[in-house]
Amino acid sequence: MAAMGRPKAAIAAQIWGIGCWVYIFLDCIVVELGRSMEPFQRMDLTAGQWVGYASICVFLLVVEGIRAFQLSFAPLLVKRSRELQGDSPCWELLLAPFFVAGLVSATPKRLCKSWLLIALLIPGLALSVPHLPYPWRQAVDAGVVLGLGWGTSAVLGFWLRGALYDRWPEARKRT
């Protein structure tokens, strides 16, 4: 009886692992969206500031959304979610969001990369971006919204493609 519940537990853990990250990304998008739209509401930027705003948005879309998310983090999340199976230890199933992000039960290199990114990137942004003056904070927020939106779409796209068509992503090899 318990063995029959394990595949269901693995599927639930896969959904929990991916769903948690999608929720975090969507929550960030909602929080940042209002502030990022402030220049459009005020309509007080100079031509140069609009160019800067757009440049920052495009830069973050490419660097965060495409390079970091689509080519690296999204395939990692989805690939590792598939590794959660019926024979996975219960603690891996419970900690699925950490597992899929490579924060537990990973190679030492993956653990180091994942924890360093979280330990440096998130506090670094949280400490620096709020101190940027208008409209540059709003531009960074808009770029983050675009990057996270693209990245969230990539995660969902890879995951749905894997779940529906059994075509799972391979993590990109660095050269």
UniProtKB/TrEMBL annotation:
The keyword Membrane applies. The chain crosses the membrane at residues 12-33, 53-78, 114-132, 139-160. Keywords: Membrane, Transmembrane, Transmembrane helix. This is Uncharacterized protein. It comes from Effrenium voratum.
